Amino acid sequence: MAGPMVFEEKEKFLQRLRELVQEGVPGERIRVITPFGIPEVEEILPGKRSKVRFFALVGAASGTVTGFAFTILTSLSWPLIVGGKPIVSIPPFIIIAFALTILFGALSTFAGFLLLARLPSLRGIRSGEEYGNAFVILIEDGERK
Amino acid sequence: MAFLEKKGGLAVLIVAAGALMAFVSLTPAPGRGGSLLLAFLFFVAVVEGCIAAAAAGATVNARWVDAVRKELLSVTPLLLVASFLLLLLIPFVDSYPWAGRPGIWLRKDFFIGRNLAFLLLAYVTARRFAAAPAEGEGTKSRAAWYLLVFVVSQSLTAFDLVMSLEYPWISALLGGYFFIESIYGGFAVSALLCLLFRGTPSPNRAHGSRSDLSDISTLMFGFSLMWAGLFFAQFLTIWYGNLPEEVGFLARRLSASPLRELCVAVLFLLFFIPFPALLSTRAKSNPYVVSAVSLSILSGILVERYVFLAPVVRFSPGALAIDFACLLVLFIVVVYQRSRGADRIA
Amino acid sequence: MGNADRYTKVDRDILAAMEKPGRVYLAGLALTATLTVIGGILWAYQIRNGLGVAGYTHPVNWAIYITNFVFWVGIAHSGTLISAVLYLFRARYRTSFNRAAEAMTVFALMVAGLFPLIHLGRSWVFYYLIPYPNQRQLWVNFRSPLIWDVFAVGTYFTVSLVFFYVGMIPDFAIARRCKEGIRKRIYQVLSLGWKGTEREWRHYGMLYLFLAAFATPLVASVHSVVSWDFAMSVIPGWHTTIFAPYFVAGAILSGTAMVITLVVPLRKAMNLHEYITDDHFESIAKILLFTSLIVSYAYIVEFGLAWYGGNVFEMGAFRYRALGDFRYLTWAMIFCNSLVPLTLFAKRLRRNTTYLLIVSLLVNVGMWLERFVIIVTSLAHDYDPYVWGTYSPTYVEVGISLGSFGMFFTLYLLFVKNLPVLSITEIKEHL
C-alpha cells in the first residue's frame, strides 16, 4: 500500500481526489479518511447509494406486521370483552403497530449500518492510527502516486 | 383571454359569477343553501390555505416560496368573493338546529357578523402581506398577522358553520383540524402551481438535491402524516369514550352507504395515497406523482366537507355544480392572470 | 487561521469542558445527588407503607406522580424536535443545541419511566405491564392507554438513546484521540473503532437521516399517546379531542423552556459563546413563542366549548378549574404559559438571554402546574357531587418529585463532564 496523502485543506484534498479519478485510478482502490462527512466526495468517487435504507424499510414493515399480528392474535387467544370494545379492536392496535414500526425500523437501520460499515472494527479500536483533522487519501495495492 | 387583460375584466367576471351564484342560491328551492355552503367551505379552505402556505413559508424563510409566491397570493381577492357568499348564506342559517332559540354565541346576527368580520380581516391582512416585498423583516410580521387571523377564521368556520349543524355535539379539535387541512390543501395547490408555472425539475439533477418541487412534496408528505394524526386523535377519542352525545356524529356517517364508503375514500385520498406515493425521494420530484397526489388531496378535502354536511344538510346537485364551477373558474382566472402579468413585466 | 487550526480549536474548546471539575460543579453535583438519594429513600418508605403516605385517596388517585410523568415525557420531546425535526428542515442553528437537547431527552425519559413504577405502589408487580408469554397465556390489555404508554415511551426511549449514541460516534473518535488513560480506553470502545472512511460516512449519513425520519413522528405521537391516558376516559375536562395536539404543543413548550434553562448557564460556565450565539437562542425563543400560542388557543377552545355545549358537567368542571379550590394554580398556569411568552414578540427581549432564562423558568413552572391542574381538578370534581373532594400533597410526594429533579440534573452534570456537549463534527462541517 502506498503512503497516505495527507491534506490540511479541504479544497486541496478535493482537487487531488478529482485529479486521481481523472487519471483513471479505479474508485474501489481509493480510500479516503475525513474528519467529517463531505458530500463532494460522494459525487467524485463512484459508488451506489447506501443500502442502509433497505434495512429501514424491512424493519419498519416488519414492525407494522408484528404490531398488528401480535395484538390481534393475543386478543383472539383469550377473548375477553374489556371496556365494551370489540375483541379485535383496530384503533388501539394501530397505536401499538405504529410504535413497533418505528422501533423495529430504527433498530434495524442501526443494525444495518453496523453491518455495512463493518463496525465495531477491532482494528480501529486497537490500532491507534489517527489522522486528526486532516483529510487523507490512501491508494491500495497500487503504484506510488 | 384578452378580455381579462383589460383593466376591469376580472372585476366584471367576479360580478358576473357572484350574480349567478346569488341567483342560484337565493331561489327558494330545497338544497340551494346547502350546496352553496359546501362550495363555500371548500373554496374558503383552499383560498385561505394558499395564502397561509405562502405566509408560513415567509415566516421561516423557506426557499420554495419564491417560486409560487405571486400565484399563491393572487387568490387574495377571492376572499372578498367568499365574504359575499357568506352574506348569501344568511337565509340558510335559519335551518341550523339552534336557529330561533335565544342564545349569546349562537345568534344569527353575531354568527354571521363574526364570520364575516374575520373573513374581511383575513382579506385585509392577506393584502398587506401580499403588498410587502418577498424578503424583509416587515414581511414576516405581516405574514404572522395573516396567520393569526387565518387560524381564527378557519376555527370559526369549523366551530360555527360546521359543528353547530350538529349542535350540541362538540369536538374541541375541529377548529385545528380545519386549519391544518386548509394549509395542507394550500401546499397541494402550491405543488400544482409549481408544476404548471415553473416546470419540471431537470431529470439530470443529482439524486436527492433540493428543488422547490421536492420541498413542497416533502411538506405535503409531512402534512399527510399530521392530518392522519389529527384525524385519528378525533376518531379515537370519540370511538373509545363511546358517549351517546358524541358518537351520534360518527354513527350518522359510518353506519350506511354511501357515506361509509366516502369516509373510507377520504382516508385514502388524504393519507393512504399521498403517504406511500411521496415516500421515496424520486417520487417527490416526479411531476406525475406529485400532481396526482395534489389532486387526491384536494378531492379528499372536498369529499370530507361533503361527509361532514351530508347527514344534516340537503343538497341540490345542479346548484352545487354551478357554484363550484363559478368558483373554480374564478380561481383559475385569478391565478392565470397574475402569472401572465408577471411574465409581461419580467 | 487555516482550516486545520480552526478545526483543532473547535476540538480543544469543546473538549475543554471535559477537564477536571471545579468546586462549583462538585457542589452542584453533591446537591443533586443528595436530592436523588432522598427521593430514593422516600420511595423505599412508600413501597413499605403504601400509596396512602403520598396522599392518594378517593377521588384524586392520580396527582403529582402522573404530573411528573407527563412533565418529564414532555420535556423529552423538545430534545427530539431540535435534533431530529430541525435536521430534516436543514436548520443550521440546530448544531449548537442538539447534543444537549438529545441528552436532555434521554435523561428526561429515564426519569419519566420511573414514575409509573413509583405510582404503582406495589412496584414489584411492574412486570404485569410487559407482554411476555406466561403460563396462563394471559396477555396485557392492548386496549388500555396505559399499555400504549409502555410501547410509546419505551420506543421513544430506545430510539432516542440510539440517536443520541449514533450522533456521538464520530465525536468519541475525536475524544479518544485527545484523552489519555482509562478515559481513552472507554472512548475507544464507544467509538466502535470509527475511522472516518468514505464508506463509513456514506452509511452514517443515511443512518442519521433515517433515524431523524423515524424520530420525527415520535415527537407528535408519544405525547399524543400520553395525553390519551386522560382523553380516553369519560371525565369532563379530560375527555376532549384536542388533547393530542394540545399536549404535544405543551410538551415542546416545556421542553424548549428546559433547553434554555440548561443551555444558558452551560454556555456561561463552559465559555462556549462562540458556538452558542444569541441568534441561536432567538430561534429557540421563537419556537417557544409559537408553541405557547398553540397552548393558549387550546385553553380558549376548551373553556369556550365547555360553555358552548351546554353540558352541565363540562361547564361545572371548567368553572371549578377557574374558580374552585385550585384557582390560584389555574391563573398562575395561564399567566406563565400564555401571557409571559407573549412578551417574546419583542425582538430585543428574544435576544436577551437573562430574560429568556427567567421566562424559561416561569414556563417550566407553568407547564408543571398545567398538568397538575388538568389532572387534579378533573378528578376532584367530576360527575357525582357526593364524591367531590380535594387533594394536598404530602412530604413523600414532594420529596420524590424533588428527587426526580435531582436525578435529572445529576445525570445532566455527569454528561457535561464526560461527553462532548456540542456536536463537534457537525460544527466543523459547517465552518
What do you see in this structure?
The complex is a heterotrimer of chains A (145), B (346) and C (431). With 145 residues, chain A is mainly alpha-helical. Chain A has 2 domains: 59 residues, no CATH class; 65 residues, no CATH class. Chain A is elongated. Chain A starts with a strand and ends in a 6-residue tail after the last strand. The model of chain A has no long low-confidence stretch (mean pLDDT 85). Chain C is an all-alpha fold. At the A-C interface, strand 2, helix 3, helix 4 and helix 5 of A face helix 1, helix 5, helix 7 and helix 15 of C.
Give a nutshell description of this structure.
The complex is a heterotrimer of chains A (145), B (346) and C (431). Chain B has helices spanning 2-5, 9-26, 32-59, 65-73, 78-88, 108-131, 137-162, 174-198, 212-241, 244-254, 259-272, 274-277, 281-285, 287-309, 317-345. With 346 residues, chain B is mainly alpha-helical.
Descriptors for this entry?
heterotrimer, A: 145 residues, mainly alpha, 3-stranded antiparallel beta sheet, 5 helices, 54% helix, B: 346 residues, 75% helix
* Cα radius of gyration of chain A in angstroms: 24 Å
Give the uncertain stretches of chain A in residue-range form.
none
Give the total of beta strands of chain B. Answer: 0
Q: Strand content of the residues of chain B, in percent?
A: under 5%
Which word captures the global form of chain B?
A: globular
Oligomer kind: heterotrimer
What structural category arises from helix and sheet content of chain A?
A: mainly alpha
Q: Biggest β-sheet of chain B, characterized?
A: none
**Helix segment count of chain B?**
15
Category from helices, strands and their pairing of chain B: mainly alpha
Into how many domains do the coordinates of chain A divide? 2
The level of helicity of chain B is over 70%
Query: What's the domain count of chain B?
Result: 1
Instruction: Kindly state the number of beta strands of chain A.
Output: 3
Strand order of the largest sheet of chain A: 1-3-2
Largest sheet of chain A: 3 strands, antiparallel
Largest interface: A-C, 66 and 59 residues
The low-confidence parts of chain B are none
End-to-end Cα distance of chain B: 19 Å
State the share of residues found in helices of chain A, binned by percent: 40-55%
